[in-house]
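BUG-375 | component: ligand-complex export | severity: low

The export step for 4'-deoxy-4'-aminopyridoxal-5'-phosphate jobs runs without errors, but we want the raw record kept on the ticket for reference. Input record follows.
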Amino acid sequence: MALEIVKAKGMYMWDADGKQYLDLIAGISVCNIGHCHPAVISAIREQSESYMHLLVYGEFVQSPQVAYAKYLTDHLPASLNSVYFTNSGSEATEGAMKLAKRHTGRTEVIAFKNSYHGSTQGSLSIIGDEYWRNAYRPLLPDVQHLQHNSMDMLAQITHRTACVIAETIQAEAGVLAPEKAWLQALRKRCTETGTLLVLDEIQCGLGRNGTLWAFEQYDVVPDIVLAGKALGGGMPLGAFIASRDVMWSLTDKPVLGHITTFGGHPVACAAGMAGMKALIEENMMVGIPDKERLFLELLKHPNIKAVRSRGLMLAVELEDFPAVKKVIAHCIANGVITDWFLFAANAIRIVPPLIITEDEIRKACAVILAGLDAL
Ligand code: PMP
């Protein structure tokens, strides 16, 4: 996009010439509470004045990590009571795969076509798109990519399978939500075979879909949940979260099953906790269904083939990628930032900060519709 942004606050960004942009992508689901929330800024200030890095993660008790882990687990099902903080979403995926192998003593990992889990070699091995994987072979062995949302694939999960990793809502595929019955059947099959179910909520979690965690809408509880993006309130932070019993597998033979120097950085944890508190205490999830409905009501146009949505995560499907590019360019020229998806070339991504107002939704949609008129 070649945009140089010099300042961002709440729903807006400004470039070096002072032009204002309404942000409809929130750093791809990072800035769920808006840019530079004052509580996050104070938490960063306070923590950075106390201490920043002390020692490789784990040796000292660093209270911002403990406090945030406690806050997170207070907002998760009781079985997800142990948090390992990482630097990124990809590292959370890596940690979860290692944990599943170590805990089950198995090697097979099952993932899904069109899924995205990160860009390191382990997480790249399980993403569900050959174009993005192929140039980096050889990748991890014993990985299968199966059809998402298909009852037929369930039989492929066996006593050999260490874990099944799925995005609760497939984001880069263009917002694909599985059937509730499928996710529940997947949970059941994993339990029957002693396979760990890992749900990647890096993009769809932390309020994006209208509930704190997307899996809440499916009445399933994963064995491991992956968080990232909005987890740090704008700072780099990821986590894999499991039961203490499962997590304990990383403590023995070898003792340090996963090592990270900066994962769980005290400043990132302080910022993340302030951000998550703002999300909850300022009731930012409350209006999401109404805002989603308003987007769906307004985004009607002969050039729109379909709109898929899950809370404030929307994919607006057009004819093809050139059409998507034209509309995105029109939006930027008119002060609205949108984006595309990795695996859904014909769709525009809309994932605004959750604080977007109805008035801002109307203004943003008017710009998008004018871009569609000009196709
Ligand atoms: N999983 C999902 C669902 C994601 O959307 C992303 C980032 N786009 C990742 C994992 C990887 O996170 P990161 O870029 O922080 O490594």
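Assignee comment: Attached the raw record above. The longest strand covers residues 161-167.
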